[in-house]
Amino acid sequence: xxxxxxxxxxxxxxxxxxxxxxxxxxxxxxxxxxxxxxxxxxxxxxxxxxxxxxxxxxxxxxxxxxxxxxxxxxxxxxxxxxxxxxxxxxxxxxxxxxxxxxxxxxxxxxxxxxxxxxxxxxxxxxxxxxxxxx
Length: 134
Fold this sequence. Notes:
The protein is an all-alpha fold. The chain is built from 5 helices and no strands.
């Protein structure tokens, strides 16, 4: 259980860490953060109550788009670690040229990806109500 999880998480974590760090540093250099520091607000409160709230849309976008590669990555991980699942079933269907199963798998993954993107778009308004106005 640990090796497949690490295999999928290791690749994505480097991308997440880089993007979150860049978004956080960009947000920390803005004028309102300087104003909050001038008022004597602690760095912890600035980071968690203001900066993190403002980078959540970026974080949600990264997570939403990464779900596609995570769905595709499970096919490879299931094949490598010999786990029975949808990915293993798809690989067997491809090798046996079972086109209806392959088409069903592709449609299922497409629907899952669209639902994940819909949830991502809906969650934007929860973290940033100003997006409703656009």
